[in-house]
Amino acid sequence: MTLFRNAFLIVIVAFFLTGCKKENSSDNKSVDLKNYLTDNASGIKIGGIKIVQINTPKGKFNVWTKRIGNNPKIKLLLLNGGPGATHEYFECMESFLPSEGIEFIYYDQLGTGNSDNPNDPAFWDLSRYVEEVEQVRQALKLDKDNFYLLGHSWGGILAAQYALKYQKNLKGLIISNMMMSAIAYDKYADDVLAKQMDPKVLARIREIEKNKDFENPEYMKLLVPNFYSKHILRLDPNLWPEPVNRSFAKINQSLYVTMQGPSEFGLSGKLEKWDITKELPKITVPTLSIGAQYDTMDPEHMKWIATQVKNGTYLYCEKGSHMSMYDDQETYMKGLIKFLKETSN
Question: Which residue ranges traverse the bilayer (predicted)?
C-alpha cells in the first residue's frame, strides 16, 4: 500500500496546482445546483460537518466527517490510505464531483486527522475499523439505495473487508490502487519494483532496513527520488500538491507502523498476511477497481480484481502511479464519475 511517512515534511512547502480542465457533459445540465448546495441540517449550520460517536471495546470516541453536496442517489464515503494519513488528500475531488452533482463525504478514521486519537495500538486493527465504518454509515443514514464506498490504498483494504461483511448496505464499491493480497503486493515489490531501481541504491536501502535504521535521514533521501517520485506520485517532490503534503505531514506513525510495518518495501505489520483473493467472488455489488501503470500495486492484479467480483469494472490510469487521482487526474476522475452515474439509476 502507499508508504506514507513523516519525511514528506521535506516537501510540505509545495502548492497545489488547480489548472486542470473539468469535463463538461450533458449530464451537467440536469444537475440542480440549488438543491445540491442546500444545507438541510437542523440547527446551527457548520458546513456539513458531523461528529460521529463510535463505540469500541475500550469506550466511546468521536470521529470527524464532512459532507459536500446533496444527492439522494449517490453518497460517496471516502476512506483514505496510509494507514494513518487523513482525508485531506481527497480535496482534489472538490474540483470535479460538485459540478456533476455527486455528494461525497470526508471521513478521518479513528486516530487520524480531526478525529480522536486514543494513542493505543490496540485500536489499530482491521476488524475494528470495519465496525467503525459501519457505525459511521448508520450515523450518516447511508443505505443500499445511495451508499458508495471508495477506499484508496489502505482504505481499499478497509473498503473490501467492509464489503465482505456489510455489502447488503452498499450500492457500489470502489477499490482504488490496492491489491487484494499483501502477499502478492510484497512479491510485486520484490520482483518488479525493486528491480527497476539502481542496484547500488537498492543495496543501500536494503542495508538500512536490515539494520532497522529507519530514522536514518539517508533512508528517505534515497527513497524520495528513487521510489516515491516514480511510483507514489509522479511529480517533482518539490511540486507535490499541497493537500497531499498536508495530509502526509499529519500521518499517525503509530498506526502506520503497527499496520504496515516500518519498511518502505513490503509489509511487516498486522497486515502482512492479509489476503482475500479467494473471497472476491462473494462481492456482488457493482465494483470499480482502479489501477495505474506506475503504481506500487500491480495494474494486472487490479484488472484481475474486476474479473473476480460478480459485477466488476476496471479503470486503467496509463499515466498514473499510486496517487493517480493527481498524476493521471483526467482519467481517474472521468472514470470514477462514469461509474457512479451509470450505477446510480
Answer: none
